[in-house]
């Protein structure tokens, strides 16, 4: 994982689309913010006066100018709305064929369950280049399952199932965070996504990896979270 970028690295098919929209909105906002600030300073300096009785010249309307500052922002807003709607639908409409994984948020851990019976705590193994759908809920309070490098996040709500999907494009380890304050150990509710080559992922599913049994990983997690 890169430590030099101001944003998390892009590691999914969704990430570039989300970042492009983000930077476009930042660019438009910065352009008009800077333009407005410069014009305010420019006119304040140009038309400054020490005469308290000075009266400015009469102001007459300009139809072309008024149309321009009405139509241009409207068109920019339409572009942002259409672009954001497309990104939204891409994020919330997974492909037809996905690898199904189930998860549960609980203070203060994430429990992931693969369909073949393999279970993990605060770790998630997935293959690169395959769409993965994670369906999840919460056992206690409101949590939020967040994969920064994949640019996908959704709330884990008690009594309700939510889902996110992503297709990893890079092999490596990536963060999992709870993005909703859930209690005193909220900051420790983190995990890691291990993105593997398909062959390595199949070997892991078959028992060739994983860092011990579920009971052993649970024991380590209990030791980490136990009050000292």
Describe this structure in words.
The chain has 228 residues and is an alpha+beta fold. It has 2 domains: 15-92, no CATH class; 99-225, Cupredoxins -  blue copper proteins (Immunoglobulin-like, Sandwich), CATH 2.60.40. 37% of the residues lie in helices and 26% in strands. It is built from 4 helices and 10 strands; from the N terminus they run ααββββββββββαα. It has helices spanning 15-46, 63-92, 198-208, 214-225, and strands spanning 99-106, 109-114, 119-121, 123-127, 131-138, 143-147, 152-156, 162-167, 172-178, 190-196. The protein has a 5-stranded mixed beta sheet. The chain has a 5-stranded mixed beta sheet with strand order 4-10-9-6-7. The radius of gyration is 25 Å and the shape is elongated. The mean pLDDT is 89.
How would you summarize the topology of this molecule?
Elements: H1 15-46, H2 63-92, E1 99-106, E2 109-114, E3 119-121, E4 123-127, E5 131-138, E6 143-147, E7 152-156, E8 162-167, E9 172-178, E10 190-196, H3 198-208, H4 214-225
Helix pairs in contact: 1-2
């Amino acid at each position: 994982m890169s430590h030099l970028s101001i944003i998390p690295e892009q590691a999914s098919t969704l990430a570039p689309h989300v970042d492009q929209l983000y930077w476009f909105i930042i660019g438009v906002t910065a352009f008009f913010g800077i333009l407005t600030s410069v014009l305010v300073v420019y006119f304040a300096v140009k038309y400054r006066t020490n005469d308290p009785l000075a009266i400015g010249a009469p102001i007459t309307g300009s139809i072309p100018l008024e149309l321009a500052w009405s139509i241009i922002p409207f068109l920019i807003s339409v572009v942002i709305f259409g672009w954001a709607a497309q990104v939204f639908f891409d994020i919330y409409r997974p492909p037809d064929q996905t690898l199904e994984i189930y998860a549960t948020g609980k203070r203060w851990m994430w429990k992931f369950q693969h369909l073949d019976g393999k279970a993990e705590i605060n770790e998630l193994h997935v293959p690169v280049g395959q769409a993965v759908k994670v369906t999840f809920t919460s056992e206690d309070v409101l949590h939020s399952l967040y994969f920064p490098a994949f640019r996908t996040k959704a709330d884990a709500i008690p009594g309700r199932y939510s889902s996110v999907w992503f297709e990893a494009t890079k092999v490596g380890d990536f963060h999992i965070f709870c993005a909703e304050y859930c209690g005193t150990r909220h900051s420790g509710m983190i995990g890691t996504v291990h993105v593997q080559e398909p062959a390595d992922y199949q070997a892991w599913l078959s028992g060739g990896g994983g860092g011990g049994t579920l009971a052993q990983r649970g024991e380590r997690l209990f030791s980490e979270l136990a009050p000292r």
